[in-house]
Amino acid sequence: MIVKEHIIGLILCMITGTLYSQTLIAVTLPVVTLLDVEPTGTITLNFTAPTEAGQALTAPAANTTKWINYTSAIASGGLTRRITASINQVIPGVNIGIQAAAASGAGGGTLGTSSGLVILSTTAATIITGIGGAFTGTGANNGHRLTISLSVNTYANLSARTNTPVVITYTITE
Amino acid sequence: MLGTSLKAQTVSVSGTNWTVSIPAITEAGSDYAGTYASATNQSILNVGLPALLGSVKVYVHYEPNPIWNSSLVLSAKRTNNGTTLCVGCSISGGTAYQTVTQTALELFRISTILSVTSYTGINIQYQLSGVSVTIPAATYNSKIVFTVSN
């Protein structure tokens, strides 16, 4: 009986410690910078000629069908991103305006902030700022809705024209 | 008789380290899928047991090595029972993903009889969730540590 008690005592002493072994897990998250405008396709904005002498041109209704989608991953402490827009040509006497709305939809993270209404020129102008690690969701109804408008800035510079394609270029940059 | 009863418990890990493969994002506006799983036998545990009438618990925790992001959630589960020559022993728990924290938590336990034995080939699968572009871009590493105790 005494021998049995000693054996159990020795066993309990041996099992109170902890031993360990390990394995390693690694994951790399890269810097990501992706930008898109959805849906694809051109938009058409036409001024309407007046029907009575002395009246002004009627500006077209603003187009609100386009959405900016982006995905942005930045390093810790890295610079935030911004989105700029420019056009390939200016139409004399006409302002082409663009305004990004606040982000909405399925996105998350540090989404950008609209710069408000911007009149486009051939020099890139910032339309969204402060994009951190973020994604907007894809397609229409996700991201920043764009309002693209035309207005007359100087009647004296206007001239009749038909089908003048203007390309708007969007860039995401630091 | 005392010589065979004094062997303490041990745990060893074989298999391979897991470098998580994350497909690149190809469409603006998208995030990562978010959850990724390793091979079902990414780690293989061998647990040596002393002559013990009771249960031995295998714990798991992680340690940043040196940098980890708390939004990256690691989980682990046991995908088989391993093998043992012990007729009266059993293994239980850990067959569903369990979040691995920096505090050691029990993953599974082995119930033994009064005989020196071992369990070999206990397969462990890992899962990584919470992967997102909202996490700062970097390389993150952690050590998964298994401990065994009664």
Q: Outline the low-pLDDT stretches of chain A.
A: 1-17
Shape of chain A: elongated
CATH class (first level) name of chain A: Mainly Beta
Strand-residue proportion of chain A = 35-45%
Terminal CA distance of chain B reads: 22 Å
**Largest beta-sheet characterization of chain B:** 6 strands, antiparallel
Secondary structure tally: strands of chain A: 12
Q: Structural class from helices and strands of chain B?
A: mainly beta
Strand content of chain B: over 45%
Largest interface: A-B, 50 and 59 residues
Main sheet makeup of chain A: 7 strands, antiparallel
What is the helix tally of chain A? 1
Q: Using the coordinates above, name the CATH class of chain B.
A: Mainly Beta
And the CATH topology of chain B?
Immunoglobulin-like
Keywords (chain A): Membrane, Transmembrane, Transmembrane helix
Transmembrane segments (chain A): 7-32
